[in-house]
Protein 1
Amino acid sequence: MKKFRTLEKQIGYRFKKKTLLESALTHPSFRYENEAASEDNQRLEFLGDAVLGLLAADVLMKHYPTDAEGELTRRKSAMTSGEALASAARILGLGEHLKMGKGEAASGGADRDSNLEDALEALLGAVWLDGGLKAAIRFFERNIVQILKQTEPALLNPKGMLQEYAQKQGFPIPDYQVIEESGPDHARRYCVEVTVSTYAFRGEGSSRREAEKKAAEKAVLNMVHP
C-alpha cells in the first residue's frame, strides 16, 4: 500500500504483510464505528508489550553488566514507560497514520499518550509477526533505543537532569565527593557519592567523571524515575 511507504521508510522496515501494519495503526474506536473493520491494534499491542519487555531487558543486561536486579528493573521501567514510548512515537509521527473513530480524532486522540504508546507497541508486535526476532530487534534498537538515547536526559546527561530536578524541588545543588580510590595507576577505580538533600547514592568507574555519572544515574532512577 503506497500510503504506508513514508512510515515504512521512517521506521526502517518494509512489511511483507501490509495488513499487519494496517492493524497496528487501527485504534479500537475506528473498528467500533466501522463494521467492515475486522481488526484493531489491541491484540498486537498485547504481543508488542511482551516483546518490548524482553528486548529492553536484553539491551540493559548488555549495556549495564554490573548493575544489580533492582537497578536493571528501574532502568527498564524508565525505558518502557508510557511517557517514553509516547515520546518516541511522536518523533516517528505515528499519530499522523492512526485510523480512529470520528469522536476520538476530534478529541485529539492522535496526540494522546496512551494511543501513541499502544500504537508503538502494536507496531513492534506486528514487526515480530512479520519478520521475526531479528527484525524486531532492529526495529527496537532503531526506533526506541536510539530515539530515547537522543531525547531522554537520564541516558545522556544524568548529572544535568539531577541538577535540574534538585532545583525544581528547592534542594541544594547535588554534591559529589570521592569516597574511595583504588587500584594501580594504569587501572584506577573511583567510588563517588552524590548527595541530594537527605539522599545519597554511589557510583563507581575508571575515572572520577564516570563514577559521578553512575552516581547521578542511580539518583535519577531512584528519585526522578522511581
Note: The domain at 157-224 is CATH 3.30.160.20 (Double Stranded RNA Binding Domain).
Protein 2
Amino acid sequence: MPIYHYKGRSRRGDLIQGDIDAGSSDAVATQLFNTGITPIDIAEKVRRQDKIGKAMVRLGKAPDLTELALFSRQMYTLLRSGVPITKAMVGLISSTGNQKLVDTLKDIQASLESGRDLSSALARHTQLFSTLYVSMVRVGENTGRLDEAFLRIAQFLEFEKDTRDRIKTALRYPMFVMIAIAIAVSVINVFVIPAFAKVFERQNVPLPWPTRVILGASDFTVTYWPVILVGLAILIVAAQLYIKTEQGRYNWDKFKLTIPIIGSIIKRATLARFARSFSMALASGVPLVQALTVVAKGVDNEYVGDHILRMRNGIERGETLTRTAAVTDMFTPMVLQMIAVGEETGSVDELLSEVAGFYEREVDLEIKNLSAAIEPVLITAIGVIVLILALGVFLPMWDLASVKLGGAT
C-alpha cells in the first residue's frame, strides 16, 4: 500500500506529523480523525525506488495506442484464463517489444510484490496510463471484474487508434498539396521572379500594379530570407510554448473546433470519445460524478473537458444529466433526447453507447467525404495563385510586345 505523509493538529493545537500506510488519502484522514488529530496536509510519499522507476520510464520511446491496446487485451486474456496478476506481468515483460513499457511493467510488478494493488501501481505512471484507464482498473478490482475492465479498455483504445488513423489519412493529401504550393511559391519568388525583374528593368517600361506587388514581395523575400526564417522559427516556438500553458491549450483546443471543414470532424470525434468513455465508465460501475471527472481529462480537448466539468458541477447541484448536457450547447436535440430516455429508463450507459455510435458514424462519413470537400478549396487557392502570377508576369510581357510591334511599324 502507498505511504502518506501527514501534518495535523492535536486537540491541544500541537503540530503532529508522520507517515501512515493506507489505500488512499481519505483513509488517512479517517484514521487521523479517529485518533483525535485534525489533518492539515496529506500527501503520498514517493520512495526512492519509486523515483528510480519513474526515471526509468522516461527513457526510450513511449508506447502508442496500439501497444497499450495489445497490453490491455493480453491482460484480459490472461486474467480470463485464471493466471495470477504477478505471473501475467512476468509473461508480458518477456513478450513486450517496447523497452519503455517493459521498464514500466517491471516497476508495476515490483509494486504488486510490495503489496500495492494494480490500480495504485498503474497510477504511478500517469504518462502512460490515463486517469480513465486507472479508474477503470480500480473499479474492475473492486467489483471482481478486472478482466472485463481490461477488455473494455482494449476496445476503447483500438477504436481511438482507428479514428485517429482515419483522420490522418484523410488529411495527408491536402497537407501534401499545401506543402507543394508553399514550395512552388517560394521557388518562384526566389528564382523566377528576379529573372523577369531584370528583363523589365532593361526595357524601362511602366509596370502594372500586380507586377509591382509581385516584384516587391520577391525583393523582400530575397533580401530578408534569413530574417523570415528566424521569424518563422521564433513564431513556431512561441506558439508551442503558448499552447503548453493552461490558457493556451484551452484556446487552441477551442480554435480547433472552429476550423472550416476539419473542425466539425474534430468536434464529433471528441464527443464520440466522450460518449464512449463515459458509457464505458458507467457500465463498469464508476459513480456518475467521478466518471465525468475522469472522462473530462480523457477527451484530449481542454475546451470540451471544461464543459464536461460544468456538467459534473451541475449534477453535484442536483440537476439532471440531460439538463446539464443541454446547457453546454454541444449536443444535438436528438442526442439530448437519447440521453433523456436513458435517464428515464435507468440505462444511461446503453444510450450513451448509442450516442457514441451516432457520432462515430458521422465522423466516418465526414472523413470519407473530407478529400472531396477540401479539393475545391485547394483548387480555388491554386487558381488564385496562378492568376496573380500570370497577371504579374505576362501583363508587362504583353506591354513589351506591344511596344516592340509599335516601334517596328
Note: Residues 56 and 103 are 7 Å apart (CA to CA).
